[in-house]
Design brief:
heterodimer, A: 363 residues, mainly beta, 4-stranded antiparallel sheet, 28 strands, globular, B: 136 residues, alpha/beta, 7-stranded mixed sheet
């Protein structure tokens, strides 16, 4: 069967699925699934027969997980969603990340308030991962503007990296049994002493599977007193971090994405910290092709002014075709695609609900 | 249909489904029905009716109404949790608290105007589950 590009677009009013042949000339849109309910995370799981997952975060009736086994033509709720044990005292407020685990049916899920859950049956039952969810620091983390969320789960063999806002970067080296903060060099510009053990407002972490020790981080930047704390890189599995923000118009932003074939190529979308829109209201994605040593502005096809959208932490992704395309969704309901690794941008959809997350896969 | 005799009161419909209760009399469940089978009925004077909003009915087999002999709101919710855990989870969070944007009424009164989860229930009461109004 010919390859197709599949997009999961999580919005304030449900999940949309867009599909196109590999040439990506025209995307067909379907949805919303879970209509009227916000979707903050999605997963296109290509282990075996592809399965699509999305969190359905119902302000009235609580959290659900939606699952599709037919590439997003229809979705059904899984038998259960993550839930804290009754005696824990915390109640699930949102679901921020869904990631594949080691086994074919294993899923990991990061939630708000920040905690980690694992399913071993494709999302029908969930257990809380105690090593981080009951970590001694867990009751000391504070919510950022988006809530106290565990938004990033990156697995790398027996290492598990977690991004928590506002908690920082935590790492396990024993498959998720135990976790420790690893934030050396990660600044918290909103604290009197910005270099603390934990409590940073990490926005997103990304990695490339071919370079396991290297991680890229979009941290909460935008502090004139602490320039450069916003965009960081680690070359020792996250134990220490250094700024790679030099050359960017702002070190504030939310998503960070790595090129699928070139581990040195990384993308960010700098935002002005006050408005959380692109500097000078002129949208641009910035690309480094040398691991963050220098940056280039990619803006061909974007409006040149008067654009005040925000792109949220999970709202940018890149496909895996030979010449990959970047995608991002905006809080103003636009879905943009940047062909040739972001060289040429076009708006695929311009009137969706506000976009929370975008995931793409070639199936 | 008679509502006087316990057994005569049971009649199956698609719109009203009883909860298995904790305090129902030994004769409340028709003897010809298996204990594990969900019970369906239209009217029974001694029971409390629970009205389920449309968006939650798929969690209780499509029933628009459930009936129970629970004596308090909390007992009613505990019963729901046992019989329809997904419906209960949509009304209450993990801690057992009623969700912030869900309102529970006993007849015409919000339960917070009565005694919250300790609000007593009596035969003939109608409990209505409704999403709170919101917008803007």
């Amino acid at each position: 069967m010919a390859k197709r590009v599949l997009l999961c677009i999580g919005t304030k009013k449900g999940l949309f699925v867009a599909e196109a042949p590999a040439a990506r000339r025209r995307f067909a849109l379907r949805g919303p699934f879970g209509a009227g309910v916000a979707v903050y995370s999605a997963l296109i799981d290509r282990r075996g027969t592809p399965r699509l997952y999305a969190s359905s975060c119902n302000a009235y009736f609580g959290m659900k997980i939606l699952r599709s086994t037919d590439l997003g033509k229809k979705f059904k709720e899984t038998a259960a969603a993550p839930a804290f044990p009754k005696e824990d005292g915390r109640a699930l407020a949102n679901i921020w990340s869904l990631e594949p685990g080691a086994d074919k049916k294993e899923l990991w899920c990061g939630v708000e308030p920040a905690a980690l859950f694992r399913s071993r049956d494709g999302g029908d039952s969930w257990e809380m991962v105690s090593g981080i969810s009951n970590h001694a620091h867990a009751r000391q983390w504070h919510p950022g503007n988006g809530g106290l969320c565990m938004h990033t789960i990156l697995r790398e063999g027996s290492r598990v990296h977690l991004g928590i806002s506002t908690g920082g970067h935590y790492m396990s080296e024993d498959g998720g049994e135990t976790f420790a903060p690893a934030n050396s060099g990660v600044g918290a510009g909103f604290l009197p002493d910005p270099y603390v053990e934990f409590g940073q407002c990490v926005h997103k972490i990304a990695r490339h599977p071919d370079v396991p020790g290297r991680l890229y981080m979009q941290n909460h930047g935008g502090f004139p007193e602490h320039p450069g704390v916003g965009v960081l890189r680690s070359d020792d599995h996250g134990k220490t971090w250094r700024s790679i923000a030099k050359g960017l118009p702002s070190d504030f932003g939310f998503p960070i994405v790595v090129h699928p074939h070139e581990p040195d190529t990384v993308y960010v979308l700098p935002l002005a910290p006050q408005t959380r829109s692109c500097p000078d209201a002129a949208p641009a994605v910035w690309r480094s092709e040398n691991g963050g040593n220098s940056w280039n502005r990619l803006a061909r096809g974007f409006p040149k002014k008067e654009s005040y959208f925000t792109v949220l932490r999970d709202a940018m992704d890149i496909d895996e075709l030979a010449s990959p395309a970047l995608y991002f969704g905006t809080t103003t309901g636009q879905l943009w695609m940047g062909r040739d690794g972001g060289e040429q941008w076009e708006c695929l959809f311009d009137s969706l609900p506000p976009v929370n997350c975008v995931k793409v896969a070639v199936v | 249909m008679s509502v006087d005799g316990e057994e005569d009161a049971w009649e199956t419909t698609e719109s009203c489904q009883t909860l298995p209760d904790v305090q129902r009399s030994p004769h409340a469940r028709p003897p010809w029905l298996d204990e594990s089978a969900p019970l369906l009925m239209t009217t029974r004077a001694a029971t409390i009716t629970v009205l389920v909003p449309g968006m939650l009915r798929h969690y209780c087999g499509g029933a628009a109404e459930l009936s129970t002999d629970a004596t308090t709101m909390k007992a009613m919710l505990d019963e729901l949790e046992r019989q329809y855990p997904a419906l209960h989870r949509s009304i209450c969070d993990e801690t057992g608290a009623v969700r912030r944007h869900v309102n529970l009424f006993v007849n015409k009164h919000h339960m917070r105007e009565r005694n919250g989860l300790d609000t007593p229930l009596a035969g003939g009461d109608v409990v209505t589950i409704l999403p709170a109004v919101s917008g803007g």
